[in-house]
Amino acid sequence: MASKLPNQLRALYASTTRHRLLSPRFPNLNEVFRDLLLGSNGRLFSDAPSPPQVSFSPSTPVPPPSGPNTSAPSSLNQKELVEFFASAETWWDSEGPFRPLHAMNPTRLAFIRSTLCRHFGRDPCSPRAFEGLKFVDVGWCGGILSEPLARMGATVTGVDAVEKNIKIARLHADLDPLTSTIEYCCTTAEKLVEEQRNFDAVISLEVIEHVADPAEFCKSLAALTVANGATVISTINRSMRAYATAIVAAEYILHWLPKGTHQWSSFLTSDELVLILQRASISVKEMAGFAYNPLTGRWSLSDDISVNFIAYGTKTTSE
Amino acid sequence: MEEVKGRQVTTLYLLPQKGKLPVADRQLIERKIAENVYRLKAPKKNLCTDTTAKVPSSNPGQPGQVHQHDIAIVGGGMVGMALACSLASMLLTKHLSVAIIDSNPALFNGVGVKKEGTPDPRVSTVTPATISFFKDIGAWKYVEDNRHAYFDKMQVWDYTGLGYTRYNARDVNKDVLGCVVENRVLHSSLLSCIQSTDFPKTIYPSKLMTLHQNSSSMGVGSTSSASPSCERGHPVKLDLSDGSSLCAKLVVGADGSKSRVRELAGFKTTGWNYSQSAIICTVEHSVENHCAWQRFLPAGPIALLPVGDNFSNIVWTMNPKEAADRKVMNEGDFLKDVNYALDYGYGPHPRSSTLGNGGIFSWLKPDVTLSANESFEVPPKVVKLASERMAFPLSLMHANNYASKHVVLIGDAAHTVHPLAGQGVNLGFGDASSLSRVIAEGIAVGTDIGEVSLLKKYEAERKLENIAMMAVLDGIQKAYSVDFGPLNILRAAAFHGANYISPLKRSIISYASGEQRLPIFS
Q: What Enzyme Commission number(s) does the record list for this chain (chain B) (predicted)?
């Protein structure tokens, strides 16, 4: 299973190179995937102490696109289909290479559920608490977050700049009628703002640490939120503990993530996040951290925001 | 087989791939592609939409129609019905469409239990933890309407006469140690409870034949190409003996120790047969009995449990040959044997302690429990046999896993234990309570209820507790199966210790009552 990952990610990256033009605001996201595919060979793309705003340099070496990729994004090439299904199975396998993400998912959803039910005045004991609300999931989680939100009754739009992720998410979502109503768009947050889309809640988990300009990204997220809507962002704190756990332990020791997935310098501290959200007219109401219990292998919500943390804010209507 | 065309297409595509894919992956890919191709090529089929089975006991058994449900509970016994009631009682799960598959006609007809008459010999001792579970789901009030017997005292001793232990509910500041209820009363109470709600359940009076997950078959026989398949999102198809089929997201195996679900889903088990059988029957006394008695004899323990009025239930474990003999011997001889076993047979009575005479434990006097001061009592004499005698072989069994994709086991399907502490069905009710809570937590955060990671949470919780209890019971069973001088003295010391060391006694009572989850860490 571990050997499949570089192959899939190589094919994945190959499809992303063509979409560089579509996603000028997410250069670091492509870098991430390149890191993912090259990192396992030992080469690290890492200018460790570089400032967060690294512009994408076209001169960095890039492997040529491989694989029989289709020209039209919507056609169903059988061989591609086989690859996608293989990727989807790995992605969605809760015991597979994305195990830490699957383990963390219920905890993140518990926070989202409790804060958003309180915000929108919904009954948390109802199985479809978010009925009638429009949510957007900005990120590269392949639908891992979008599907549970759809099962909770929300009308979900999933946004990802990488075409392949969207296809995989679409295929998996179509397996269950409850989740097949999710709208997946291969686009960016900025493009959605240009289309003047609005959502009751904008959720972007584990994305902002991979973005070139976090302040601009937050402004886009805020623009997507309706007045008095909610924004939920999760990321990793820029602290020494985070360096020890999220980078050293997770990438080098436990091999939960490929080496080079995260750059410590692009992490935001919780104060910085609150500040840039404030500047984007979102006031942060609640923050919680995620704690991992190595004995049970489960994540839980905690007050400790020094490593992984999640913030919920509401859009102020002053501007 | 359905979707043969789809399968042939995929095999051609898979051959030129670099290297051989592992079988499991290949099957997964085949399955997904077959689904996709089928969906693309086949015209939209109007699959059966008769999902809202809000009317209880509707007759669904029609071949050709495939009903869609969220959960299929295979086995409508005490534990299966307890799970259904628990799901019906929680806000997060009461909307789930549940199918209960059991060919027992009582389920379908909803027959009540006669309140008079002699008690049935099949009884269970429910612990206080189970009683509070029943109260939570709203079924205990139906039990109290029928015959039931609370008891607050228990006496345990053995044939050597070297020691005894008396337990009293007041040692742990409670009113009861447990309640003895006939199985049919428990079952009909659960049935009444669920009939009184508008929970969308459907009862299928049939037996499970095969289980199919997506398009890979796991059972004997195969579906014909003409049978309709499941809608999206309901990946498991169950074929029943009357020809009907249904689809579900999650299959719960609550079908007892010879579970068909466990067999079809390929769960491996560990266990061994005890070379013992148990005889059960109902007997009558001339006075009321309010205490539970258990005496360990050389061949196995004999237990006398109060059932209500002047009746008691006997559970007598012995080797299989003696069990066969005792089952058919005439009543008078059998009653004589029973009284002999409970009284002076096989050995003397233990010497009862007078006040403060705890021997080496007398320094614990200030903390001594109420029951430590009670003297040894002889159980009430049995005067009449009130029911037929039944015999069952005993064994220990534990499934190595309780959960796999879309399938989970609860109750006797997952584990069976020796009856010497009356814990068997209580473990099953604990499973039902835990599973329903895990399902509710999953639905709260939008998880698909058939996902393995959710079901493994239930397994992790219950496996530890079940194995701990099984270890304790098996240990006791083995300790009492040997008649060896030094071991007898050790057992006597254990009796004394349990009787006079109050913290130990309280711990034993808490653990046996289900209030304490693990034997060591309180």
A: 1.14.15.45, 1.14.15.46
Residue B492 predicted with pLDDT over 90:
no
How far apart are alpha carbons A316 and A313 in whole angstroms?
Answer: 9
pLDDT tens sequence across A152-198: 999 999 998 888 888 888 888 888 888 889 999 888 888 889 999 89
- Concatenated DSSP letters of B202-215: EEE-S-EEEEEETT
Residues linked to residue B178 through DSSP beta bridges, in sequence order:
B151
Angle of CA points B439, A88, A61, to nearest 5° = 135
- B451 lies in a domain? no
Residue with tokens 């005993």: B394
- Separation of alpha carbons A251 and A247, rounded Å: 5
Please report the DSSP string for A52-94 in residue order. S-PPPPTTS--PPP-S---SSTT---HHHHHHHHHHHHHHH-T
B164 falls within a domain: yes
Q: Which of residues 445-484 of B touch A (CB under 8 A)?
A: 445-448, 451-453, 460
Give the CA angle between residues A151, A154, A156 to the nearest 5°. 95
Give domain status of residue B37, yes or no: yes
Same domain, B127 and B21: no
Q: How many CA atoms lie within 13 A of B348 on its CB side?
A: 6
**Domain identity same for B141 and B44:** no
CATH number of the structural domain spanning residue B280 = 3.30.9.10
Q: Which of B40, B233, B446 sits opposite A152 (nearest CB)?
A: B446
Provide DSSP, A289-304.
EEEEETTTTEEEEES-
Q: Which two tokens stand for residue A30?
A: 């492509």
B500 and B366 inside one domain? yes
A vs B, Cβ pairs < 8 A, gives: 78
Instruction: Inform me whether the C-beta atom of residue B11 falls under 8 Å from chain A C-beta atoms.
Output: no
Range of the domain at B504: 123-183+276-394+482-521
Residue keyed to tokens 């979008």: A146
Q: Are residues B28 and B160 in the same domain?
A: no
Q: Using DSSP, state whether B239 is helix, strand or coil.
A: strand
Q: Are residues B42 and B130 in the same domain?
A: no
CB A280 within 8 A of CB A267: no
- The residue among A104, A128, A151, A293 with the most chain B CBs within 10 A of its CB, best to mutate, is A151
Q: Do B443 and A82 touch (CB under 8 A)?
A: no
State the Cα angle at A278 between A272 and A281, rounded to 5°: 150
**A285 phi and psi, to 5 degrees?**
-100, -40
Distance CA B167, CA A113 (A): 47
Res B62 pLDDT > 90 = no
Are both B280 and B388 inside the same structural domain? yes
pLDDT of residue B373: 74
Largest Cα separation within chain A, whole Å, is 54
Q: What is the amino acid identity at position B422?
A: G
Same-domain check for residues B138 and B18: no
pTM, 2 dp: 0.79
Residue closest to B74 by CA, chosen among B211, B192, B176, B175: B211
Instruction: Based on the fold, state whether residues B136 and B32 are members of the same structural domain.
Output: no
Residues of B in contact with A232 (CB under 8 A): none
Q: How many domains does chain B have?
A: 2
Query: In a mutagenesis test of the B interface, which of A1, A8, A66, A78 is the best target, namely the one with the most B β-carbons within 10 Å?
Result: A78
CA separation for the pair B354, B407 (Å, rounded)? 56
Residue B380, in any domain of the structure: yes
pLDDT in tens, B177-205: 999 999 999 999 999 999 999 899 999 99
CA A39 to chain centre: 20
Facing residue for A176 by CB, picked from B13, B233, B444: B233
B13 contacts A106? CB cut-off 8 A = no
From residue B387, alpha-carbon distances to B278, B311, B313, B319, B327 in Å are 15, 10, 10, 22, 12
